[in-house]
Design a protein that fits this description.
Chain lengths: 134, 134
DNA sequence: TCGAATTTAAACACTTCTGCTTAACAGATT
DNA sequence: AATCTGTTAAGCAGAAGTGTTTAAATTCGA
């Protein structure tokens, strides 16, 4: 059974990178092209991000589904929706408007284009008023 | 780009499970066999474990490689090796013999069969004397 | 012990991932 | 201009993951 997401090749590259080597230097050491080192490093970072997202999901299991921010929605209208839904459930959202928008964008930058929601975002809330997105 | 490791199917099963449903009940809901629900749930838990291991690896990046516990080694001889190697590096291991063995086993149970190491285990140590295995 | 719940194994199509090459492109530094 | 660094894209072969079915084993409470 595989232990982690990272392949031996990916770990190798990350270790050399941590030591400050350039992609070209690493390419020479492991005998391949610098383009390939770039690809491998990128894949490694993606895998790490994916691992983080996976564990992030566990929080949504403890949380209740609050609402769905539908594709096309104006990002600035999201807080209003979220506050109103949370009030219905008798929970106070932990974040103010600005913080909420930032959290929303930071959580997964890919899902927003400027002020627009590109893809449906599910919003979860726990009893502490913490928000999670999935 | 995929966000997490878990497929929609796997998330679905985990959510129903969290609600206390049996595999048979879930199978009826998502219209498949209970055996399949079992497989999906198992895959989900494996993915979560893999995500944890992946992030665990990041610690080994900050840590230095201490030694390798080779396949076939007696688990009870590991502490001696580790203490002696750490001393060479001028770092004091944070754990006593008993705790060390327990950490070693708990870190990844699959790599030990009774008192024997089944598969090479890399040992890393940081400046605080914390140990990581990979 | 009976039956329900859970787990495991094997096999199958299908999809995705991985490492790799080649080639091109953008930014900095020299 | 020439060089070094990092990125990106297309394509390819081999490996691994996913959902599924079917069938057999195991656990466990009543």
């Amino acid at each position: 059974m595989k232990r982690g997401l990272l392949t031996d090749r990916q770990k190798e590259v990350l270790r050399y990178r941590k030591q400050g080597l350039t992609q070209q230097q690493i390419a020479d050491i492991i005998k391949t092209s610098k383009a390939n080192v770039c690809t491998i490093e990128k894949a490694a970072l993606e895998n790490i991000a994916r691992a983080r997202d996976t564990l992030e999901f566990l929080y949504t299991l403890d949380a209740a589904h609050l609402c769905t921010l539908k594709s096309g929605l104006d990002l600035l209208k999201a807080p209003e929706i979220i506050y109103s839904e949370a009030e219905k459930m008798g929970v106070k959202v932990k974040y103010d408007t600005i913080t909420l928008i930032n959290r929303l964008r930071d959580a997964n930058p890919d899902r927003f284009r400027g002020r627009q929601v590109r893809e449906d975002v599910e919003v979860y809330i726990n009893e502490d008023g913490d928000l999670y997105f999935g």
